[in-house]
Amino acid sequence: MFAGVARQAAAGLRILLLMTVVCGLLYPLLIWGIARTAFPGRADGSLLRVDGRVVGSSLIGQEFTGPLWFHPRPGAYDPLATGGSDLGPDSGRLLAEVRLRRTAVARTEGVPADSVPADALTSSASGLDPHISPAYAHLQVTRVARARGLDAERVRELVDAHTTGRALGFLGQERVNVLELNAALAAAAG
């Protein structure tokens, strides 16, 4: 009887090892290889390279501050600590934060508070959205152009060139990837 149990245990162990190699090693390597071939940029995390150096991923928002850069949506910008605030629309704390942000953005951009777009005031659900609306990007053009000594029309053209339309023409909203726009801005400014 012990020999039969040992034989079954050995067979089970062989299957376990075989399936571990097939499912845990060979299959993931096959899928990774196909992805690298079919979608070379995406398989590596959509990394953005400038002069051969990785400056970030176009899928993850990064914090940019100061007058020289286009600013992203408010958020955590720590990929190890993502997530929304869990504050609902009737939260007094959220409303207070939105009011403060509206005042700060209006002052920074030199515009009336009622012209500040919603994405300048609220973070995304993950807190890491890499995109802003074209309206928020255009709101920042004057500040960025002045700080960099560039023609505002040239900066506006950069925004337009980095505006992505709706997926399939009707899904989602037009958007501007802040990292890609700032990389192009840095290149244009020399």
Q: Could you give a quick summary of the protein structure above?
A:
The chain is mainly α and 190 residues long.
Account of the 3D structure:
- By secondary structure, the chain is mainly α.
- It has helices at 2-38, 40-43, 92-109, 134-148, 152-161, 178-189; strands at 47-50, 53-57, 131-132, 163-164, 175-177.
- It folds into two domains: 2-40; 45-189, no CATH class.
- 51% of the residues lie in helices and 8% in strands.
- It is elongated and about 85 Å long.
Task: Map the helices and strands.
Elements: H1 2-38, H2 40-43, E1 47-50, E2 53-57, H3 92-109, E3 131-132, H4 134-148, H5 152-161, E4 163-164, E5 175-177, H6 178-189
Antiparallel strand pairs: 1-2, 3-5, 4-5
User: How far is the N terminus from the C terminus?
Assistant: 80 Å
Q: What structural class do you assign from the helix and strand content?
A: mainly alpha
Spell out the helices and strands N to C: HHEEHEHHEEH
Shape: elongated
Strand arrangement across the biggest beta sheet: 3-5-4
Name some characteristics of this structure.
5 strands; three-stranded antiparallel β-sheet; mainly alpha; 190 residues
